[in-house]
Design goal:
The complex is a heterodimer of chains A (304) and B (359). Chain A has helices at residues 3-32, 40-58, 61-85, 90-109, 132-138, 142-160, 162-172, 174-179, 184-210, 222-232, 237-260, 266-285, 288-291, and strands at residues 122-124, 139-141. Chain A has 304 residues and is mostly helical. Chain A has a two-stranded antiparallel sheet with strand order 1-2. The longest helix of chain A is centred in the N-terminal third of the chain and has 30 residues, at 3-32. In chain B, the strands form three sheets. In chain B, strands 12-10-9-8-6-7-15 form a seven-stranded mixed β-sheet, sandwiched between helices. In chain B, helix 3 (75-86) packs across helix 4, helix 5 (134-148) runs parallel beside helix 6 and helix 5 runs antiparallel to helix 10. Classes of the chains: A mainly alpha (304), B alpha/beta (359).
Chain lengths: 304, 359
């Protein structure tokens, strides 16, 4: 272990954990309202493509970010209509949405392959143009700084507001929520719009802050990792911070260890983040029943 | 009477059309089909393919080129190539490794169409394959890196650790050592040819570990070159020589595929009906690979050294000539022995000076 390695892992896990956290928070809100969205990967891809395209066209990465958030929300609205209004199976619809997102993002991104952008500016919180290690640890884009506060905000919304209480009631028992005077469909729509918003931002972070390039299917399965992280976080936004850092950290650590010349097979190294995810699901999975929203994945057919 | 004459003339003209019809078809310009696995604007492998095909089109007036991008390495590619044949294609370039079997299937059912596949090994009377001999061409890249590094640490991002990619890393390190005995190359494997987010983290990791020259063997060099540029270190490109646009400050040089001449010759042989299938592997010497223009950071003496090294490789110098020791101290290529074209896929070890594990 050397300093460069520790610094590198910390800096890289913050950077790659950020998009995971936004995506996880979005999925978590949806699941708290009782809806599993396996199409998160597709939403992220659409966010990545839209964010990159608008940044390239306007030269303003913040505009790209806003566009990505709205694009994510708009596409998730299609999903919401299908599973809430048309009462389609959530898992099947989610998978369709994933493939739809893959195709649509390729279409949006097509003219922007190989285009150069400046990307989200890095803000130095030290106020100084630092060099070396200090620069690596103190210069991040705005989304990194807002990631943990966003988790706090979602937690506050879910657990400290009347809206959050109603939303969670829908996720536990839509019939009871309905009887208490809430409209489950309306709350689920709101949850899924918020989820799409977050998913779009998550995708845009990858393309406009991490890679600065658009390529087809570039999220590389991170949408599915985020779905696993919701379970890891036990549907708690604050635990999601730990989950995102853990996965981002595992990926950064294995690549840093390779760069540092660790005596481990690269094939094994590349499995580490996924092994970790599996392990986490095995360890936490057993008491899943007690914390998962009771009506998760079930279609609410209304009250006679 | 005049009317009758006019009618007769018209009939004769019509008949003439029918007679001339098939003859005109003989002179029909060649239609060439090409399928790419990704987008051609990626500054990478597909861009290099596209540039080669455009050169062929320019060299042969009247040639028609039908292209399809983002063609997956599945049976879908067979349907797309079939469609190109329906549109009259008589020569098809299947440009990704995974397209091989599907192109080969079509070659059997369409003996009148010639197929050229990039990187494979299959052979049939109407099926040949071609690729750049990349490994030895990496040697001059190492010379550039070895001369320019101040930290004596070079970084190499590898997508999938196949033998050919490991050979590239080995030649790179040997080139660097030829001008700088203290140069080491650190390797990070991402596990995929196109996982951009991971490539970004990998490039950052190499720079964190002290690398001040970063290079790569992945599909598109765009992400890694941009990370290097943003962190103020040098970069060396691979696949398309055009990647220099991505790093106006830190670009040193790069290695690109230049397929144009081979594609032109192949198309001409198809037109002349003299096509002969072969397993073509050519490098700097035959013009199938080229050293990209230098960046502004490279001083004249280094440019001269790199060019001289490239000329030496083009002239037939084989860097894989023993004795060569791996990074565990074992002699892998004995004194008097040398590894040539057919052994380039066999590397499962790194040469001395590479920091990393091959398997």
């Amino acid at each position: 272990m050397n300093t460069a390695l520790v610094v590198g892992v910390v800096a890289s896990s913050m950077l790659s954990g950020t998009s995971l956290l936004y995506a996880t928070l979005g999925e978590l809100v949806g699941e708290r309202a009782g809806i599993v969205n396996l199409g998160l990967e597709g939403i992220m891809l659409i966010g990545a493509a839209t964010g990159f395209a608008v940044t390239a066209l306007t030269g303003d990465p913040y505009l790209g970010l806003i566009a990505a958030a709205f694009a994510g929300a708009a596409v998730n609205l299609i999903f919401a209509y299908l599973v809430i209004e048309r009462r389609a199976n959530q898992l099947a619809t989610g998978l369709c949405l994933m493939f739809f997102g893959l195709g649509l993002s390729a279409l949006i991104g097509r003219p922007f392959v190989g285009v150069l952008i400046d990307g989200l500016p890095r803000l130095h919180w030290t106020g100084l143009a630092a060099n070396g290690i200090a620069a690596r640890l103190s210069s991040y884009d705005i989304l990194v700084y807002f990631a943990a506060p966003a988790a706090g905000l979602i937690w506050w919304l879910l657990f400290r507001t009347r809206w959050g209480l109603a939303l969670r009631a829908v996720g536990e028992s839509p019939a009871s929520a309905y009887a208490a005077g809430y409209r489950p469909a309306s709350l689920q729509y709101q949850a899924l719009i918020l989820a799409g918003f977050m998913g779009g931002i998550a995708g845009a972070h990858i393309s406009t802050a991490v890679t600065l390039t658009w390529a087809e299917g570039m999220t590389g399965g991170r949408g599915f990792i985020a779905i696993a992280l919701v379970i890891f976080a036990r549907w708690n936004p604050l635990l999601a911070i730990a989950g995102a850092l853990l996965f981002g950290g595992a990926e950064a650590l294995q690549l840093q260890l390779q760069a540092a010349g660790a005596d481990v097979s690269p094939f094994l190294m590349n499995m580490v983040p996924y092994l970790l995810t599996l392990l986490v699901l095995v360890v936490w999975g057993w008491n899943r029943q007690s914390v998962a929203p009771a009506a998760l994945g079930r279609t609410f057919f209304g009250v006679e | 009477m005049k009317r009758l004459m006019a009618l007769l003339t018209a009939c004769a003209a019509l008949a003439g059309l029918f007679v001339i019809g098939p003859a005109a078809a003989e002179d029909k310009p060649l239609v060439v089909g090409a399928i790419y696995v990704e987008s051609v604007n990626d500054y990478g492998y597909d861009r290099a393919m596209k540039d080669g095909l455009e050169e062929m089109k320019k060299n042969i007036p009247g040639l028609k080129l039908i292209e399809a991008e983002n063609v997956p390495e599945t049976a879908e590619s067979e349907r797309i190539m079939e469609g190109m044949i329906q549109q009259g294609a008589k020569l098809i370039f299947a440009t990704s490794f995974g397209h091989q079997q599907f192109a080969f299937n079509l070659a059997k059912t369409h003996p009148d169409v010639v197929f050229e596949h990039a990187g494979g090994w299959m052979q049939a009377p109407n099926f040949g394959n071609f690729f750049g001999a990349t490994q030895s061409a990496w040697y001059p890249m190492g010379v550039a890196a070895g001369k320019m590094t101040k930290s004596n640490t070079l970084g190499f991002v590898v997508g999938v650790p196949i033998g050919y990619a490991l050979g590239n890393v080995n030649a790179f390190e040997m080139g660097a050592r030829s001008v700088n005995p203290n140069a080491v190359t650190r390797v990070v494997v991402t596990g995929g040819w196109s996982d951009k987010a991971k490539e970004a983290v990998a490039a950052n990791a190499l720079i964190d570990q002290g690398a001040d020259v970063v290079t790569m063997h992945v599909d598109s060099p765009a992400t890694i070159i941009q990370i290097a540029e943003s962190r103020g270190v040098y970069s060396i490109g691979f696949q398309s020589t055009e990647a220099r646009a991505l790093a106006p400050k830190g670009w040193l040089t790069g290695l690109g595929f230049t397929w144009g001449q081979f594609m032109t010759d192949t198309a001409k042989s198809v037109i002349a009906g003299t096509f002969k299938p072969a397993m073509v592997r050519q490098g700097l010497g035959q013009g199938m690979m080229a050293v990209a223009p230098f960046g502004p950071a490279v001083p004249p003496d280094v440019r001269a050294l790199v060019s001289a090294s490239a000329d030496r490789i083009a002239g037939g110098f084989n860097p894989f000539t023993g004795p060569i020791t791996d990074n565990g101290g074992v002699v892998r290529i004995k004194e008097g022995e040398s590894w040539g074209g057919d052994k380039m896929g066999n590397f499962d070890w790194y040469v001395e000076g590479v920091i990393g594990k091959a398997k």
